[in-house]
Structures are given as C-alpha cells and as structure tokens.
Design goal:
With about 170 residues, the protein is α/β, with parallel strands linked by helices. The termini are far apart. A hairpin with a 5-residue loop joins strand 2 and strand 3. About 5% of the residues have low confidence. The longest helix is centred in the first third of the chain and has 27 residues. It folds into 3 domains: about 30 residues; about 60 residues, no CATH class; about 60 residues, Tex RuvX-like domain-like (DNA polymerase, domain 1), CATH 1.10.150.310. The chain contains 5 helices and 6 strands.
C-alpha cells in the first residue's frame, strides 16, 4: 500500500512539473512580448478625403508608403506591405497622424532585407546590380554599414553616392 502511495506521489509531481513547463512554453509564445507596428498618416484626415498615403513601419516585411482608400481596413494596408512578420503584435500597433507642414523621414530601403525587385527601383541600380547585392548578402551575411555596398561587384563611388540617401542596414 505504501508503495502505491509513493507511485501516486511521483505521478502527481511529474504532472505538476509538466504543467509548469508547458505553461512557461505557452507564455513565451504569446504576442504581447513581440515588436509592435507603427502606422503613420500624413495626409489630413477628413470626410472628403477618398485616398490617403500611409507609412507602415515596424514588424512588416516591406515598410513603406501605401495608399489607404476610403473602404480599406488596416489589414488591407498591412497586406500591401507584404504582411506582418512573426514578431508582429497588432494589439500594440501605433498610429501617428501628423499635421500639414510637418516633415516625416523619407522611406529607406533595407539592403539587408529588400528583395532584388525592390533594390532594382533604386536610382542607377537596375536588375543586374540588384541581383549582385542579394548574392553578396547571401554569400557574406548582412551588411553592417551602408558603405559596405561598395564591396558589391559593379558598385563604385558614383553609384553608391546616388543611392546612399535611400538605403539603410536595419
């Protein structure tokens, strides 16, 4: 009888430990500890406005400016931005509305995350250099400074000077 009681105690302690470990694992998977989204409106918001330009930044695949039409929802704009990445917590999204005349920082393209079609849009880059940037990144890892773009085959000082104000390594 005492042996049966010892087994029950061992089983009960094992179950309690399993519940605690499972709870810790589930708690770490919850979105409240993840990076937030930032959504910035720069066009005056009024009933007569049918389309706004909206800047989406944070935990999205392609941060940048997107049009927000009258019937769009925030999820439509997030979809245009390539969707949210796994670190997104839409519950903590931030919305900023700027007044007319206030300046907003220009959109920068991350040379560490941008696909070749987006790099191709940079002035003077083109398809071949965009592919060279992606290939360099895949072979050598992320860029630590934008100046490292000069190490990419086909990019010299003139090309670099033409794109440096449009890029970042975020």
């Amino acid at each position: 009888m005492k042996r049966l009681t010892n087994y029950r105690m061992l089983i009960a302690l094992s179950l309690i430990a399993l519940i605690i470990v499972g709870g810790i694992f589930l708690f770490q998977q919850q979105p409240w500890s993840k990076e937030s989204l930032e959504i910035i409106l720069t066009t005056p918001v009024s009933a007569s406005t049918t389309e706004w330009e909206i800047y989406v930044d944070g935990a999205v695949e392609n941060p940048g400016w997107y049009s927000l039409e009258q019937d769009n929802k925030i999820r439509d704009v997030l979809s245009k931005a390539g969707g949210s990445n796994s670190n997104t917590n839409p519950v903590t999204a931030k919305l900023y509305i700027y007044e007319n005349g206030k300046s907003v920082a220009p959109q920068l393209i991350s040379i560490n995350r941008a696909p070749d079609w987006l790099l191709d849009a940079l002035p003077g880059i083109g398809t071949t250099l965009a592919q060279n940037i992606v290939q360099y990144r895949e072979e050598n890892g992320s860029f630590m400074m934008i100046e490292e773009l000069l190490l990419v085959s086909g990019i010299g000082e003139a090309k670099y000077d033409g794109v440096k104000k449009f890029i970042t390594v975020e």
